[in-house]
Amino acid sequence: MKKITLLLAAAMLALAPAAAKGLKGKVIYVNPGHGGWTINDRPHATMNYQEMDTMSFFESKTCLWKGLELRDRLQAAGAKVIMSRTRNGWVAEGDKNATVNDRFETYADENGQQQLIDLFKIASQVDSINPDYFIALHSNATGGGDGKKVNYLLYMYRGETGNDYAKGSIDRATVAYPYMWNNPLTVWTSSSMEDRYIAGDLSWMGGTPPGKPNALGYTGWLAVLKHRVPSFLVEGSFHSYQPERQRLMNRDYCRMEGIRHFRGINAWFKGKPEKHGYIAGTLKSADERVDDPCFNYVDGSDDQWKPLNGAVVYLLNERNVRIRHYKVDNEWNGFFGFFYLKPGKYSLIYDAPGYESIIEKVEVKKNETTYCKPRLHRTKIDIK
Ligand SMILES: [Zn+2]
Prior knowledge:
This protein is of the alpha/beta class.
């Protein structure tokens, strides 16, 4: 048993490049998937909004939220970050589906920041810059109708499973996977630490033998990966799983995903651990369930319990002084999060009208997220 553990540890160490000394000066290219408010930007109805309402779910919007947080964390660690886009509402030139909310991509917006949407243009830029790391951020959807109870983590690289055409892609995804999978706030229906979905795009999408090369000469299935840089596209979760979609409606939940991506990249470059820690959780009812056609949850899972919209979570320091609070949104996810906390002991007070408040003691450790999943009972009404 010990021998196997040691071998595994040695194998993990061998993955990261020996010369890596942290993120300082490294060039990281971050590509938030999609770009605008079109029908191709993966719009979905949610419990509060209709499909195509810009307030509703668009994968283009949530991928950007993840990417901006990832950028900020990478820059704080000294990396140079290039993003294909920093805004939502841009579409590739000539997109016939463009809406009134979209602008066609140009080489820069009014702040001088480029907004690239076209996948070949992005791949060409990546190939010419040749960054140290490339990551494409997405969420996934099942075919054949909405609301399927399917939610797993998937990494895809250019090539066949077990044979990355840009060498180093499999190793990068393998190092990143455990950080991304560690999300107790979601409900995974398959994939695990033991059974990791890290696949070649040609094999996963069913395209072997390799199709036609792009104009740069690279073969593969996913257009954005057809360049020379070791890289992957990560489907962070399934937005077609409705309770997860409701979570993705919360920007801070997406930011937490950005932080998990950061940890995977930081580990690859053997960077210093972050000095601060985080708290993330979901606040739900102890005994009420959600009954809504837009909330098809996995039976018996944490997702069965009704999220407490509008509740307030107070953060107290060790001397029991309230230092921050988080107002839970109205998007049926119950999410709350506290960022950049000094390691130490804290307390959380969960407060929702009509429910009995509870207090929970938590410890925040550097470079880690402390997860909490409190559930509140309804206040007992005295009937006389
Ligand atoms: Zn996508």
